[in-house]
């Protein structure tokens, strides 16, 4: 023992030398094995998942689909400052060493061997790339050895710039963003080539600890990390100190909503796109989240925002049932000329995912289905002024007796002849079923099929009342036939598909429109549907939109589904409101779906020119008598109505005998009797009546509505409201009395054989409502 050595020091020193020599031998052996493996082990082809990007019709990014959010870019697209900052921060000697930094790796290997586990890093950019491409993040010795072998192989095959490019496209930056392009879009809403120096140096510091340095959650930590990046750039001589200070003072300008994903497209629209990609190419459906496709879609972000805003502001407040807020909603808006879907909503929450009610919810459409009935009726050369009487009627069917009725239990019938024009406006069920019986239920089914309804339908009398479930997408596309002049369109969401390098893989041919309806019939159907939003069950909705529109309310049997489907020349929109588990709603199509539809249309069309439908060549407009639909005589009250050429009236209405009409009114013993006399065109008729007659009728109406205890009025009570209830039908209460109204003005004259004040029919001028 040396005099200068403490007792036992020599054995301990010898033990240390032995351990170090053993570690050095192991390191040498591992180095030899690595070199051998580098020559023997084949390098796998890198498999990089890339995000598929969906673009709106305005070219904006509306959604990114990924399991790993990645969009590859070339190295020359990455700003030089970002490239240099990453190198200086992650691997300052990257361009000087080989696959790994020998000194750093030896130090890390010895430390890990001594401890029997990974305690020290020291990975180069090439090693990190090897891990990102081929290995897991598990910190094991064998993974570290495999990483070194793969790094050697990468250095053998690729240049340093190629390795750096791959690294920049694979490294994780947080918030699901892999690679500099995805990170730039996520944090700043701009492509990487447009980054500012402040944004570039912020991104360069994130790969080491993306969660801890997250600028959206930990801005102070992110700024401290950016200062470290700037300091390394200065130390390496790549930035002057004053330049670094100026960059540090620049704002980051983080993207709004970056922490929430940022998809403009709803989950329902994304679902529709993925389904359509699968029909174009089955391989795309399975791999769309990793193929890096560039998909140009039909989505109009402005229309989508309009729909979402209308739902948020005007959908009835919901209640949570089994974890789902009820009632739910689905909205489809599309271009009637092409079928391009401009907006899609499958639930109250645009990004809730789950069941896509716009595409998959088959629910009873109620009276919105009457549009197909009356299009079929008009196609058979009937006119808008032809009538059916709304009164009790029973049909014998294979399923038994069927008695349609309207909604109000106290007044289930109008007891009056209703023209098609008025029956559509007030949504009368009885008249609809009578017309269905007249032309045959198969004709209604055929019209719906031609328009684009593909859901199962049966040729029953209740089919026109919406007895069979359909989807909102079907209804929107089918109503486009009336909007665009008789052409069936196929709804679609995908316009073009490109690969990650921009090469076109598929492009939609010009949409082929199929003529399925005479333009004149489509025009007359639209004219009838315009009455709904001006004077019918949807009265007032046209005023909300502020331009010419047409549409139809609908409420299903038992009040479980509320609909409004309508359109302007530029846009057709279908709105469904209902509970996932069928239950009565707190309203009807007009009150629940109508406000959402009208406000969505108003916002979607804001700034667009006001358009209306052009009269086709096979339609003629005529002034006709409101009394009988014939050509007016000099005393007739008139209205202007479109007819298909060849169906317009040719006879002149006989001169109106007011005195004889008054005598008939005197004989009326109930409101129903009065209604029969005042139909059709009762309101216009009374405007043309002498003042004394209107005054007398006002008093008589009060008597019939409020009979004295000693007076019995057969069938008395208030005039029945409109309705839409029958098996499978809809219900739209409170729409008026089918055209007549309480007359106004004047003091009543005493009843008698001779009317007071004279009887000359010419005392009142005819009117021509247009």
How would you characterize this protein structure?
With 770 residues, the protein is of the alpha+beta class. The chain is 40% helix and 13% strand. The strands form 8 sheets. A 5-stranded mixed beta sheet has the order 2-1-6-16-17, covered by helices on one side. Helix 16 (420-426) packs across helix 20. The chain starts with 8 loop residues before the first helix and ends in a 65-residue tail after the last helix. 49% of the residues are buried.
What percentage of residues falls in helices of 4 or more residues? 25-40%
Q: What's the alpha carbon Rg, rounded to whole Å?
A: 38 Å
The end-to-end span amounts to 123 Å
Average pLDDT, rounded to a whole number, is 82
Structural class: alpha+beta
Largest sheet: 5 strands, mixed
Low-confidence stretches: 1-5, 709-770
Widest sheet, order of strands: 2-1-6-16-17
Shape: elongated
- DSSP E strands, number: 23
Helical segment tally? 26
Q: What proportion of the residues form beta strands (DSSP E)?
A: 5-15%
Concise summary:
This protein has 770 residues and is an alpha+beta fold. The protein has 26 helices and 23 strands. It has a 5-stranded mixed β-sheet, with helices on one face. Strands 10-9-21-20-19 form a 5-stranded antiparallel β-sheet, with helices on both faces. A 3-stranded mixed β-sheet has the order 3-5-4, with helices on one face.
